[in-house]
């Protein structure tokens, strides 16, 4: 842990009761909570309270393997007391990028947009190759913060956008990155001996076999349709078709939006809650491979959120995950 770029004092380390870092998907910022024993010192002095906006860098793991969980900014402090003592809790979150802007982005790519916004916030852009050259003819940022705007764009393309460890990520849902921002090449293996407890809700939802999107072809003065997949898939029984209401500017944008919506609609409703021995490689939108439990639970899951907790009880990671959808050819 570093506070304002400096290592904490021995007194602060001795008073630390717990660390909780929650890594969320792009819809919510990552969160940090630190709890300290706030009993008065021998001279009656108390722990110095951090100022709002103070930066806290956290790394978690084991003696020979520490992984950065990110940089957080203090946004809330709470004090509690009783006859047995006092507790100081410091809450912090990642950079909210709150300044609202209105501007038009035209004739550009997602990669170029993320790179420009990242640079304005002192971050390094890391964009999945599938989005790096995705063309954008025109899109408006209307009184939105940069992060809110990029999250709206990410929703359209079935992506996740979030600041993490000095990076601004724009990645495909379920692709996964390590907390350092580097791509996760393989799912994290979870075996019975790693698990403290688990529960799962196995649900099915009605799949859509096709998504249709429209775009305006100015050369012909007519609306054109594209779909994902390009044709109905035989053998699925009832064929459900979903039609997007938005009118897109180009065939490429319409196709990308249709594919993103198709992936979203066919993502399973099954969920998994699990607490495992602490593993710093588990991160939101990464994947885990569960084995040795039972059918319906074994397999690959996408992590929606991961909470890394350290206290007197040791280091544990709590996971909320959803089942990876079965991909159909697009």
According to DSSP, the number of beta strands is: 20
Reading the helices and strands in chain order gives: EHEEEEEEHEHEHEEEEEEEHEEEE
Uncertain stretches of 5 or more adjacent residues = none
The major pleated sheet works out as: 12 strands, mixed
Shape: globular
The gyration radius over C-alpha positions equals 23 Å
Question: How many separate structural domains?
Answer: 4
- Separation of termini? 46 Å
Query: Average pLDDT value?
Result: 85
Helical stretch tally:
5
Describe the structure in your own words.
- This is Phage tail protein.
- Pfam families: Phage_GPD.
- The protein has 330 residues and is mostly beta strands.
- It has four domains: 92 residues, no CATH class; 73 residues, Phage tail protein beta-alpha-beta fold; 70 residues, Beta Barrel (Elongation Factor Tu (Ef-tu), domain 3); 59 residues.
- It is built from five helices and 20 strands.
- Strands 1, 2, 3, 4, 5, 6, 12, 13, 17, 18, 19 and 20 form a twelve-stranded mixed beta sheet that branches.
- Strand 19 and strand 20 form a beta hairpin.
């Amino acid at each position: 842990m570093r506070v304002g770029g400096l290592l904490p004092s021995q007194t602060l380390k001795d008073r630390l009761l717990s660390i909780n870092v929650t890594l969320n998907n792009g819809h919510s910022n990552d969160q940090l909570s630190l709890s300290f024993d706030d009993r008065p010192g021998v001279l009656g002095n108390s722990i110095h309270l951090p100022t709002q906006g103070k930066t806290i860098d956290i790394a978690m793991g084991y003696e020979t393997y520490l992984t950065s969980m990110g940089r957080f900014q203090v946004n809330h402090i709470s004090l509690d007391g009783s006859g047995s003592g006092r507790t100081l809790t410091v809450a912090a979150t990642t950079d909210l990028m709150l300044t609202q802007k209105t501007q038009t982005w035209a004739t550009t790519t997602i990669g170029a947009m993320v790179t420009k916004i990242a640079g304005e916030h002192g971050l390094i852009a890391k964009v999945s190759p599938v989005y790096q050259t995705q063309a954008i003819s025109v899109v408006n940022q209307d009184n939105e913060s940069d992060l809110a705007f990029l999250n709206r764009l990410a929703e359209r393309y079935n992506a996740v956008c979030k600041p993490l460890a000095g990076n601004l990520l724009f990645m495909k849902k379920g692709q996964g990155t390590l907390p350092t921002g580097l791509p996760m090449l393989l799912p994290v293996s979870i075996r019975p001996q790693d698990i403290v407890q688990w529960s799962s809700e196995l649900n099915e939802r009605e799949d859509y076999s096709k998504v249709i999107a429209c775009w305006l072809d100015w050369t012909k003065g007519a609306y054109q349709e594209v779909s994902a997949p390009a044709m109905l898939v035989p053998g699925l029984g009832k064929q459900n078709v979903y039609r997007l209401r938005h009118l897109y500017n180009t065939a490429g944008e319409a196709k990308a939006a249709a594919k993103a919506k198709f992936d979203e609609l066919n993502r399973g409703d099954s969920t998994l809650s699990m607490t495992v021995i602490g593993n710093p490689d588990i991160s939101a939108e990464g994947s885990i491979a569960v084995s040795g439990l039972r059918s319906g639970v074994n397999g690959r899951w996408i992590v929606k959120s991961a909470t890394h907790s350290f206290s007197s009880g040791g280091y544990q990671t709590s996971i909320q995950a959803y089942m990876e959808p079965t991909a159909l050819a697009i």
